[in-house]
Every structure is written in structure tokens, then in C-alpha cells.
Amino acid sequence: MAAYDKLVAEAAADYQGYWGRLARELVSWKKPFTKVLNDSDAPFFKWFEDGTLNVSYNCLDRNVERGLGDKTAIIFEADDGKVTTASYRQLLAQTCRLANGLRSLGVKKGDRVVIYISMSIEGVAAMQACARIGATHSVVFGGFSAQSLRDRIADTGAVAVITADQQVRGGKQLPLKAIVDEALALGGCESVRHVLVAKRTGADVGFQAGRDVWLNELLAGQADTCEPEWVEAEHPLFLLYTSGSTGKPKGVQHASGGYLLHAALTTKWTFDLKDDDIFWCTADIGWVTGHSYITYGPLALGGTEIVFEGVPTYPDAGRFWQMIQKHKVSVFYTAPTAIRSLIKAAEGNEAVHPKKYDLSSLRILGSVGEPINPAAWEWYHQHIGGGRCPIVDTFWQTETGGHMITPLPGATPLVPGSCTLPFPGIQAAIVDETGKDVPNGQGGILVVKQPWPSMIRTIWGDPERFKKSYYPEDFKGKYYLAGDGAIRDEKTGYFTITGRIDDVLNVSGHRMGTMEIESALVSHTELVAEAAVVGRPDDTTGEAICAFVVLKRPRPTGEEAKKIAAELRNWVGKEIGPIAKPKDIRFGDNLPKTRSGKIMRRLLRSIAKGEAITQDTSTLENPAILEQLAQTN
Ligand code: 6R9
Fold first, then answer.
1. pLDDT, tens only, 292-328
2. 132-155: per-residue pLDDT in tens?
């Protein structure tokens, strides 16, 4: 902790000097920067702006040049357990061939490329290849529907899509290319000139000559060296879509230099990554955690990591523990929702209990995506970490690029359920609605008072929305608003995140906007008149999605209600993706509204939880509806 305090003091005394020093130590620059931060156009901050670099050079070539060419970069385990590895030299060659292939198709610096592929070495190489030629990638999680994929392709104006014939998860073959075809057929994606298709299963898929290209054929003719495109530090490395409280998902834009710095630095300090570690982050590359702690951070440091195609419950719920044993994983990073479901599975079935496995290789455990409840924390600590391994509970967001509040392992004294203290250099604080600091022990709104290198640069194509969402006038446009509530412990100053303060739900660690799900429901124009979506606590998934729906026909009951609920669930699955399917759907003649016509969501939240309504309902236009909604189910 003395070292931690020293770093915090260094950042406090000379903020720019601190970040400048780290950017020189961790990132290799083609042209060194002379200026650390440019805040003249706040909140559009620029970091290291006159420096140039290439992110893929930093993650690959640099390690080969350091003598790590034969070191394993990626240990890939397929759904069926088959293992393939790639050394740094091999990953560099694969990335270069793909980068050359993209260039041969006319893809160049500044173009956007959408990647819709499952967990694979190809997926990581595709991201690295985009970075190599200065194309901005936007990875779309393989669980999103054709409609969601279309929206993202259209918003980015991508010139190419990289995908695979199929994906394999939990023993099942699922479509990828067919969904890309469907997405492109929906229209609005005329910018797409090419679809690159990797062969995963060899399944028969549609092929449009001229547009579609088999990846293996494209790569066969390419050289395995490729001159990197040296880009300015602020060049957009990627766009990643995430849910906000209103409107459609927003394309969070990240820069190259500052992002790479924080991805590398947090991997180094939060995970204490050492040369002989086997690091495993179980996230998907479709989420920000997969970007920072699979594709970029560990590779920038020359680490060895696992990339896993499958799911934690196949062939059984011992899969994670079996893989930790098999690959001698030393640093393991996963989500509370996975831990909770594996606790349930282990309690129900001795055979998949972690005690059946040798987990002695582990030295550090991590948690991300949602608050970890103390009971899950204790189980993780005892049964997975053998009571020996520190747990780093890392709070951060798509927008922050890397860890913001987290313990440093072995240093920070741990408290279950608390993400403890800000990462050195991050000015996290808790304020009230007017932006005034609140004293410890009193909850408030989580903000970050100073810009940091890996922060979101803008929302793609919508700078006004960026300003409004993250630098609202309430705080005089000065502080970054995370969208979470938090409280600091009176004695230790430790942070505990109390959850989102906006209309964003966190279901199994996935961010879902209630408005997005409502729009999907009401887009079923034949059936649905009106819909309101709220969250309720769930033991396994953290939060569960509850939809209150008014149909264009009389309120259904019994079997008919079940049938329509199933139809609407599938509809939402098709519109957004299976992760957005409501767990509960209740039908009403109406929704509780104020006299001015506003839906009173806080009442719906109480009903969804099964709580008695204690709130003031005097402004309600139609109080009788509450009883009806409470009865349904
Ligand atoms: C990395 C990631 C961000 C939201 C965030 C917060 C929640 C993430 C957390 C946590 C409590 C943690 N969250 N980590 N809450 N403790 N350790 O998850 O990004 O998908 O953008 O979600 O997730 O609510 O605002 P993203």
C-alpha cells in the first residue's frame, strides 16, 4: 500500500507527468509525443496527440523483437476440448496475412470493419489486423440478432464484415454467416463491399460471388509480413456498441494510444501479470472485457493467455475448473453471474464441484461486470482460490476502456463486495445531484473528476449525445458521469457500487437498456400496444428483465397468456438477441401512468419484485391497474 500511495501522490502532484511517464514506459511510439493532454476542447480530450504508434506492432512485433517469438501467445481451447496454440511469431504472421488481405480488398486507414465471429484465434487476429492497417474495428457479439447486427453495420458505415460460417457453443452449431446475410438483406448496409468468411465447421452457407470471400483463400496468397500503418495516438482503434438509457445503442469510440496504455497498465498492475503466468479472461471479444483483457492488454505485455470458444456448463459445469487444472491457469478473470451459476451447479452435483480439480496453479482471481455479492465472493475465495488468492473486484465500463476502481492484488486489503480504491491516477469521487462531494458513508453519484488516457472519445457520429450522456450540465460539464451509484466506507474510503442510476439493466453482466427492449416489444405492431420494461433482482443473473405489456386485444389469461408471452420472448430474441428476452411478461389493460401520461416505472419495479406498494400513488391516473398487474403471473 505504500507503493500504491506513492503512485497516487505522484499523479496528484503532476497528473500529466505521471501519465506521460507511464505512456513512455509501456507503449512503443514510432514518433514520441511531446504533449500529454490537450483539454482545450473539453470534454473532447486528446491524449499524446502528436505521437504516432501502431497498436498491433506493440502487441506482436515488439514481443518478437524482444525474443518472445516462440513464446505461446494464445492457447485456444475449442468447444469440444481440442487445443490449438499460436506463438507470438505465428500470431504476427497470421495477423499480417489478414492485414495484407484486407489491404488487397481496398480496406484502408479510417475505414470501419465489423467483426462478427466467435471466440477464436482468427477473431483476435482479425482485430489485430484492423489495428495494423489503421482500420477501426467494431466487434459485434455473436449472440446478437440480424437486426442488431444490421443496425451496427449501418451506423458504422463498415466497408467489410469478418465472420465465420458458423460458431460452436455448448455442443451446438449456430449460424454466423447466415445472420450476416440476413442483416445485409435488411438494407441500409450498402457501404459493405466484402464479407470475409472463416471456415469453422465447413457447413454449407450462402455465398455471394464478388462480395463474399473465403478467408482461407484470401490468406493463402498473402505475405506474412506487413508494414504497419503508423497512426496518430487519437486515431480511432475501435467502436463498441453499448446500451444507454435512451435511444439506440451508442458506438463508444476509443483512441489508439491512450487506450493501449491503460489496457497494458491495468493488466500489469491489477493482474500482476508475470512472464510465466497463464492468464485466462473468460469474457467474449464481443464485449469490452474481451477487448482490453484478451486482445490488447495481455498481448501488449507478452503474456500467455487462454482463448475459450465454449460455455462454462458444457460438457458439464466443471468445465472452467477442469480447464484451469489442464492449462495450469494462474490468473483467472470471470463474472459474478458465472460464479453464481457454477455455485448452484456444484451444490447440486458433487461431480462438478471445484474440489474435484487441482486448482493449485491459481494465484489471482478477478471479477467484473456487476457487483459481486459477498456470498459469491466467499465461495470464489474459498473453493476456487483455496483461501489463498486475492480477488480483484474490478469496476469499469465500456466507456472507461480499462479498470477504474479495483484492488491491487497482494497490496490492497480486501473487503468482499467492495471494489476498494481507485486505480492510481483515476480521480473517482462521489457527488450529489449538484456535483458537490458527499461525505464518506453517504451514497451518491459516481463521477471521475479528471480525464484519463483510455476514456471514451465520443459517441460515433453523435458528439452531442456524448456530451449529454457523460458530461452533463448538472455537473457543469466538468465531471465524467459513470451512470452508477456508489458509496464510500466511512473508515476506509473504500467504494461499493450500488448499481445503475439510469434505465440500464445488468443481466448476467450484459448491459441492456430498458428502452431498447421496449422498442423491440412495440415493434410487434400486430400484437403490442404499449410496453414498459423494468429490472428485478435475480439470484443467478443479478437482474432479470420484466416486461409489462398492453396488447391490442383484450388482456389474455391462462394458456393464452403463456402462448403470447412465449411469442413475444422469441420476438425480442429476434429483434435484439437471446440475452434480451424478458424473463417475466405480464399483461395489463393499461400501465400505471401519471396524469401527464408518464409511466411510473418505480411502481412497476415494486410489482416486479413482488413488493407491497408503499410509494405515493396519488398522482396516478388509474390506481386500479396496480392490483391487476400484481395479480398476473
Ligand atoms: C466492464 C464492463 C458497465 C457497468 C457498470 C456497472 C457494472 C462492471 C462492476 C460493475 C459493480 C463491478 N459493473 N463492473 N458493478 N462492480 N466490479 O462490465 O463494462 O458492459 O460497459 O458494463 O457494469 O454498472 O456501469 P460494461
1. 999 999 999 999 999 999 999 999 999 999 999 999 9
2. 999 999 999 999 999 999 999 999
Other C-beta atoms closer than 10 Å to the C-beta of 474 total: 14
Q: Is the CB of 484 under 6 A from ligand 1?
A: yes
Alpha helices in 428-578 (DSSP H): 463-470, 514-522, 558-575
Question: 476 pLDDT band (50/70/90 cuts)?
Answer: confident
Percent of the chain with pLDDT over 70: 100
Asked if residue 598 has pLDDT above 80, the reply is no
Q: Whose CA is nearest to atom 5 of ligand 1?
A: 397
Judge if the beta carbon of residue 542 lies within 6 A of ligand 1: no
3-state secondary structure of 512: strand
Q: Is 40 known as a binding-site position?
A: no
Three-state secondary-structure class, residue 274: coil
pLDDT at position 595, please?
Answer: 76
**Substitution candidate for ligand 1 out of 253, 404, 497, 507 with most atoms within 8 A of CB:** 497
Is 370 marked within a binding site?
Answer: yes
Domains of the chain: 1-310+395-475 (3.40.50.12780), 508-630 (3.30.300.30)
* Residue 289 alpha carbon to ligand 1 centre in Å: 10
Residue pair 157/112 in contact (Cβ under 8 Å)? The answer is: yes
- CA 602 to chain CA centroid, Å, is 27
User: φ, ψ for residue 382 (rounded to 5)?
Assistant: -75, -55
Q: Are 502 and 468 in contact (CB under 8 A)?
A: no
Cell numbers placing 473: 450540465
User: Mean pLDDT of all residues in the chain?
Assistant: 95
Residues 6+ apart with CB under 8 A from 382: none
Annotated ligand binding at 340? The verdict is no
Please give the distance, rounded to the nearest whole angstrom, from the Cα atom of residue 240 to the centre of ligand 1: 15
